[in-house]
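Reagents: none. Just compute today. Glycoside hydrolase family 15 protein.
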Amino acid sequence: MSIATMRRSGHRLLGRVLRRSGASRLVRSSPPIADLGLIGDRATAAVITTGGEICWYCPGRFDAPSLLGSLIDPDAGGEWSILLAGAEPAGRRYIGQSAVLETTLRHPAGMLVITDWMPLADCVAHGSICRSLGPAPAAFSLVLRPRPDGGRRIPLLRLDETGAAIIDHHFRLQASHPILIRDGVVRIDVPQGEQSWAVLDELRSGVTADQAALADWLEATLAGWRKLAMRSPYDGAFADPVQDSLRAVRLLTDDRTGAIMAAITTSLPEVMGGKRNYDYRFSWLRDSGMMIRALVRLEPDHEQALQYLGFVASLLDTGYQSPLDPVSAAGGERVPKQVKLPVAGYRDSRPAITGNLAAHQLQLGSLAQFVLAAREIYAARDERPHWTVVSRTADFLVDNWQQKGSGIWEEATLRHYTSSLVSASCALDGIAPYTDTAEQATRYRRAALGLRQFVSRRCLSRDGIYVVHPGSRSVDISAALFPVWGYVPACDTMMANSIALLERQAGSGGGLFNRHLQNSRAQRLEGAFLVGTFWLAHYRIARGELERAQVLIEQGIGYATDLGLFSEEVDTGSGLLLGNLPLGLAHGSLLSAVADYDVAMRQRG
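Predicted 3D structure written out:
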């Protein structure tokens, strides 16, 4: 099979093709972002291609160093492949509303069905990967090439007395068929006609895997995902995309802490072959706050929203000083310093990194999004859980809104960004009814009024346009949310004029829009920001323009993968997906817009 054929079929070997005499290298490329699927256990996740290859896996937690990382370094990163010569991808699906992924490969002799999942069973360690494969249409091999510490080294490999492969005295591979080790690679050969399975877990778990155990773990996992799905009985407009997005948000959630990650991956490029590559495996106040707004509307028990609020409250116990960092690690730790990884990068997009510089920025809008999320929870439940952290954050906004910050897009240039000021004003106005005293409420409302006066004086152009910051002549896509946050009616003339200019300046066709960046070169090169499509749809809903909103929602959904996952951006020239995946902000924005759309449609009758 030629290299070109292997790439077309989804069997991107990304490094080595094993031969009986040893291993030889092939030139390989990372899979298209649209080909990526996910499994997870709400503690970490793994990324799987349409050909059944696991190309990204961080054991134990989302931001751990990868054990399999060929996604961002095809040669050195490591992967878990299925080598079935002559096979091609024939489709994949999640089983029901679970995150159990079923992938089918078509071979001239028949189909091979692969079921991948991370168990939710209590007896299995977090981050364990289970693979169950149906009868083999022809002989094939499962090939695991682990590369710990983000691909920086070849691990120690040995077989224990049971025949399991031990990786670095820390991980273990158990399988239905004999395991072979050679040249830093673990291989399982499966004869034609036989079913097979394999489990990768932590050695310390001590759990013995066999066919019966896998069946039990699969049933427990499906039952666990069914229980999660019951939180949202939604059956309204766009029901299937809504359920896909709810699954994505649940996959992004660390159930141990309540943190919601921005994405599963790091360093998938916003500009192909460029330097705009970031680590999104952390929890942003901005992104999570916007997701919580949707979850409050779609999950009547508010369990995940309350859990997230508890996560943010727990940050006060880690020694944080006011204000909260805009970004936190999954366990509540501070985000580590940004470090360049010595890897090739996704399709030569370098540098690939871990950590994130945004954690040390002043982002007033992110703090405001947290307070807005708390307001939504308080309004829905008529109680004030974790009021201490909410009030401290609001107090910080009152005392510091005059400071210049990095804005919603984490700019290096500090300014009075309009979207930050608007969201802070809405947050203080919105949380004022829940204060302990009338004096505190008055203080919040007075600051909110001061913010409004500043915006009216400095952030409106002579033509009555909400510009990006004082002195700018442009409108950012975040302005579409001003009516959604409650700052101004959607039918307001200045709002309408701002959106009209936004559509002229930032529209990319196909319902796509660009965000406004201070770096003009980055502005020209990066793709359209998919979230903007749903934000503008939300604006149209607020105006009562439901038909226009429906078109935008449909256009945005059209950029999802076959599994309903959204990336960060879309290349408007090629249509290729760009950026990290799945982008929680995109899924949350769809959910929020659809929730309000469905209500508006029902009210219309």
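The CA atoms of residues 124 and 206 lie 9 Å apart.
Action item: order primers for follow-up constructs.
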